[in-house]
C-alpha cells in the first residue's frame, strides 16, 4: 500500500533567501495552468476515487498563496482522489499572515486536520533579513484565527544559526514559540544551499553565520527548552507532544512508499524513486501531455534499500529496530554492520541495545558522520541472500 501522498504547490508571494525548494512568484494565470497540469498528473497516476492513504501533505512553496478559487479546486481534487475522511493526518503548509478566515474555513470544511506554519524566527528585523514577508504579530493573529476555526493540530517551523543570530536571539525565539504550547515544532539549522540568495552572499564573503560551536550550543538549548515544555524529541529536528508526531514525515523516516505530485516533487514506489521536472513551463507541458512529468528515475535495489533503512531510521530517536530489519531483508543487522556498529559505539556516537540501535546525544550532533558508516560496497550483499 502507498502510505502517503505529497502534493507540491510551488507558488510564493516572496522568495526567501535560504530556500532551495521548487518555487516561483505567484501569478494567477500560471497558477491556473499549473492546477490543470497537476490534476492531470494525479488523475493519470492514481486510478479511481477515494484511494486509501495514511497521510496527505500539501507543501510548497506556499499552498495558501493560491487564490480562493484555486485553493478550492486543489482541495476538491484531493477529496475526489483520496479517502480524506479516513486519512490519519492531512496537513497543509502556510505562512503567517498569508491566509484569511475564508481560506481557513475552506481548509476545515474539506477535511484538512493539521497546519504547518513557516514562522522561522520571532524577530521582525531578522525576518526581513532572511526574506520573509510576515511579521511576528502575524504569527499571533494567524494562530488565533486557526483556533477560532477549531484547528488545534498546529506545527511551526523554526530556523537557527541564521546570519548574525546570537544565543540570546535564539533563546528569545524559543521562549516565544513554546508559549503557544503547540503540539509540534520543527527546528532546523540553516543550510546554505546552491541557487539561493544566501549561497551567493556566502561565496562573496557577505554572509556571516554563527561559528559551529555556537550552532551546537543552540541545538542543546533547543533540546533542553523543548523537553522542559513537554515537547519530546522524536527525530533529529522534530519535537512533539505525545501522539502528535508527524505521521507524514515518519513515512519518509520509516522508508515507506509515497506518491509525489507537482513540480520538483519526489515519490517512492516499490523499487523506484522518482523526481519531477522543476521548471514550471516544462512541468506543465509534460504533465498535460501524458501525466508523467518525471525528470529522473532511480532504481532502488537491495543495497540502496538497506542503506536508506539505516540513514532514515537513525534520524528517529527510536532508531532502527533489529527485528524489523531482519524481517525486511532476511538477514540480521549484525551480519552486515557489526564492525561499523562496534566502532560507532566505541566513539560514543551510537547506542547498541538488545532490540535496536540509535544515536546517542553526541551522535545527534554528528549524524552525517554516523550515516556514512552504513554505506555498502556493491558486492557485499551477494553472500547474504
What labels describe this entry?
alpha/beta, TIM Barrel, Arc Repressor Mutant, subunit A, 2 domains, 9-stranded mixed β-sheet, 3-stranded antiparallel β-sheet, 17 strands
Describe it.
Helix content is 41%, strand content 20%. It is globular and about 55 Å long. Helix 1 runs parallel beside helix 2. It has a nine-stranded mixed β-sheet, with helices on both faces. Strands 12-13-14 form a three-stranded antiparallel β-sheet, with no helix packed on it. Strands 15-17-16 form a three-stranded antiparallel β-sheet. The model has no long low-confidence stretch (mean pLDDT 93). The chain starts with a strand and ends in a 14-residue tail after the last helix. It folds into two domains: 4-253, TIM Barrel, CATH 3.20.20.70; 302-384, Arc Repressor Mutant, subunit A, CATH 1.10.10.920. The protein has helices at 28-45, 68-81, 101-109, 124-129, 136-148, 167-178, 197-203, 212-228, 247-253, 280-290, 302-313, 322-329, 333-346, 361-365, 367-371; strands at 4-9, 11-12, 24-25, 55-60, 89-94, 114-120, 154-160, 184-189, 232-235, 238-240, 258-261, 266-269, 272-276, 294-299, 320-321, 350-352, 356-359. With 385 residues, it is α/β, with parallel strands linked by helices.
Amino acid at each position: 500500500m502507498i502510505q502517503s501522498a505529497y502534493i507540491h504547490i510551488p507558488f510564493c508571494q516572496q522568495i526567501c533567501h535560504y530556500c532551495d525548494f521548487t518555487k516561483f512568484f505567484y501569478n494567477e494565470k500560471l497558477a491556473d495552468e499549473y492546477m490543470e497540469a497537476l490534476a492531470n498528473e494525479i488523475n493519470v497516476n492514481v486510478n479511481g476515487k477515494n484511494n486509501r492513504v495514511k497521510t496527505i501533505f500539501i507543501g510548497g512553496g506556499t499552498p495558501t498563496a493560491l487564490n480562493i478559487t484555486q485553493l478550492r479546486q486543489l482541495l476538491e481534487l484531493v477529496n475526489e482522489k483520496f479517502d480524506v475522511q479516513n486519512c490519519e493526518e492531512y496537513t497543509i503548509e502556510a505562512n503567517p499572515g498569508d491566509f484569511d478566515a475564508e481560506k481557513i474555513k475552506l481548509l476545515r470544511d474539506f477535511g484538512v486536520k493539521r497546519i504547518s506554519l513557516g514562522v522561522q524566527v520571532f524577530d521582525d528585523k531578522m525576518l526581513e533579513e532572511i526574506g520573509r514577508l510576515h511579521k511576528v504579530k502575524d504569527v499571533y493573529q494567524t494562530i488565533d484565527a486557526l483556533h477560532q476555526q477549531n484547528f488545534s493540530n498546529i506545527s511551526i517551523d523554526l530556523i537557527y544559526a541564521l546570519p548574525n543570530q546570537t544565543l540570546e536571539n535564539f533563546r528569545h525565539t524559543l521562549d516565544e514559540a513554546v508559549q503557544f504550547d503547540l503540539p509540534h515544532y520543527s527546528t532546523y539549522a540553516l543550510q546554505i544551499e546552491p541557487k539561493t540568495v544566501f549561497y551567493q552572499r556566502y561565496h562573496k564573503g557577505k554572509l556571516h553565520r554563527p561559528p559551529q560551536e555556537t550552532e551546537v550550543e543552540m541545538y542543546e538549548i533547543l533540546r533542553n527548552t523543548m523537553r522542559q515544555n513537554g515537547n519530546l524529541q522524536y527525530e533529529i529536528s522534530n519535537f512533539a507532544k505525545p501522539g502528535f508526531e508527524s505521521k507524514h514525515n515518519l513515512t519518509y523516516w520509516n522508508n515507506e512508499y509515497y506518491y509525489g505530485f507537482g513540480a520538483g516533487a519526489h515519490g517512492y514506489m516499490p523499487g523506484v524513486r522518482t523526481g519531477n521536472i522543476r521548471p514550471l513551463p516544462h512541468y506543465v507541458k509534460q504533465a498535460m501531455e501524458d501525466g508523467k512529468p518525471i525528470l529522473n528515475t532511480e532504481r532502488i535495489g537491495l543495497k540502496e534499500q538497506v542503506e536508506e533503512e539505516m540513514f532514515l531510521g537513525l534520524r528517529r530517536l527510536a532508531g532502527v529496530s533489529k527485528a524489523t530489519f531482519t524481517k525486511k531483508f532476511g538477514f540480521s543487522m549484525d551480519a552486515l554492520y557489526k564492525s561499523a556498529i562496534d566502532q560507532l559505539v566505541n566513539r560514543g556516537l551510537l547506542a547498541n541495545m538488545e532490540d535496536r540501535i540509535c544515536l546517542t546525544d553526541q551522535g545527534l550532533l554528528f549524524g552525517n558522520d554516523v550515516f556514512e558508516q552504513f554505506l555498502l560496497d556493491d558486492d557485499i550483499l551477494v553472500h547474504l541472500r
